[in-house]
Request: fold
Amino acid sequence: MLAQKSVIRETFMFGRQRAAQIGYENVFDYSLGNPSVPRPPQVTAAMLRLLAEQEPVELHGYCPSQGDPVFRAAVAKSLAARFQLPYTIDHIFPTTGAAGALSHALRAVTKPGDEVLTFAPYFPEYGPYVAGTGAVLRVVPAEPEAFQPDLETFAAMLNENTAAVLINTPNNPSGVVYSTPTLRRLADILREKSAAYGRPIYLVSDEPYREIVFDGVDAPYPAALYEHTLTCYSFSKSLSLPGERIGYVAVRPGCEGEDVLVDMMAQISRFTGHNCPPSIIQRACAECLEVTSELSVYQTNMKLLYAKLTELGFTVQKPGGTFYIFPKALEADAKAFCLKAREYDLLLVPGDSFGAPGYVRLAYCIDTEKVRRSLPAFEKLAAAYAR
Amino acid sequence: MLAQKSVIRETFMFGRQRAAQIGYENVFDYSLGNPSVPRPPQVTAAMLRLLAEQEPVELHGYCPSQGDPVFRAAVAKSLAARFQLPYTIDHIFPTTGAAGALSHALRAVTKPGDEVLTFAPYFPEYGPYVAGTGAVLRVVPAEPEAFQPDLETFAAMLNENTAAVLINTPNNPSGVVYSTPTLRRLADILREKSAAYGRPIYLVSDEPYREIVFDGVDAPYPAALYEHTLTCYSFSKSLSLPGERIGYVAVRPGCEGEDVLVDMMAQISRFTGHNCPPSIIQRACAECLEVTSELSVYQTNMKLLYAKLTELGFTVQKPGGTFYIFPKALEADAKAFCLKAREYDLLLVPGDSFGAPGYVRLAYCIDTEKVRRSLPAFEKLAAAYAR
Reply:
């Protein structure tokens, strides 16, 4: 297990060491998806108010197993208004970020030996999340360059053992937003196969980047298109709070088992020592559901990088959201390419662990000024391959 | 799984409903171990300072997999000074409370099929924590009335499959502090059997009540007496922050595998979606390691209850710490006794799920004034059995 450390984390740690040598400002670290903009002022205000005014024993007390009722009710109300679906408090299970959400959702809808399908490219931590349940992750190969799900191959891979399908849109690492026609077709296939197997195949929809969608892009809400959906959300990106570990699972009204799934996740929690996200953060986020950090910087950064990469001849899909871009490496071996990039202090992550060898991920959640200063390094890197 | 809900939580929920009927002040709820005193002012000050002065992107960023270095270093320094053991940052793994600590420690030192031994009476959540790892919990029967571990039976139950021993002192639910001679003898047995089996048997020591020890009681630190110890701590009780989910595992210097256990726990975390406790709470607690909430109320409450219970003829061991007391019920069936107690709006928890049928737990982390007002209800309850 120790040999399987996250390549993203390792690149990040390398960057820290390099920064100690040449200065933080000279390392162009595109490795880690850590938001670069501060929490919104509303979060600060909510925290200060809770600390000043809320009775501390009540504020910091144990949550019920299903989570803080104030947070759950607020999330349900917000989702219901936004997506026109009758979410209630009983559909919402607060979790320690998307990691906690995915782990609980997957454990709730699978049993050991079941199969979970996902589409490459995909977030590598899906491997551990699924393995932790005892289920088996099967990956539908990526379809460059658009990186929309390959639904023909997907339909052929579905079988009697498929318990759930795990999707992520807007997508890490490609930045691609799955289109409405794609998701409608996905839903149709799931309904058809669910009917054939006599039980629902669940859709587990990982949506930490829901709020980071660029101008003119239509980002559909998967649960609106398929009833048996567990939506996994995190406030890590929208409120710039990744370290505070706060998110939720929203069980779609009408989902098979909607009356027991939240209770099941509360019970699952006892077996992993999860026991709810922090109470003060739940309370603060409950007051900030309709705000976000100043996210426009990510679009600015995307445009700079997309323009430069295309200018330099990279094969690259224009992101519709997130803070990632996923160009093709300039040699077949993306790992070798990333090592070469390090010579110019560009820290990129090879696509191999995302199920897309030959591509590299850039996380452009860094200062725009630093993105600008990194552009000559990309020029030098491309020139090294042009020689 | 849904049928195995915690009896503690169910009693607590009953209390909430009853409070809605007759008023919160009239329900004598001794069910839940939720601290009744506020967080210390130092925690508030630390939180306010972090929100005002700390760069937010850094403050709320993702922690390294092993946890926040500031918190880890501070905990190591504090433990080293207090217990004269050479803890370093590399021995400390921050967790979401004791639940997270125990889950990670047990997963790190067991494999599926292994046995974990504990001593009745014990915290019922040990069942799920151990079952979650795939190991099997075996319980050394309780020895009333002292409720010290029965080491003869324990030694006979140890076998080639025993991977770990799980203890909790000061003890929930008995309030008993395991004595130094008891722990020395326990350590001797473990050393002897470890030598016989050619591998160490780990001691997992659950210590959320370490700071709540009453006048004149000697509370030894188990890791000081046995080298292969993983100490599991929570700030839930000492700083009155149960909902904020903050604790740690401290791997004892000299423990077998001390160089890999924290890394192993960091990797285990990926498979359960744990991914570190909240970062702002880690930072705040790092500044408050040498303070506690005003804990003296628990001793005041204990003395009131112990005096009344003994006066009424209950068989009961005087607690050495915690905020629990564990008298013998006035009939053989503790569940029936607890239902009878509800007629007087006394909410007690039967000892059955703690592995000690016939006894009942009182969690006296409530206002002293309410403890006083509850004493006549105990008189009426005892009188009902005297008739």
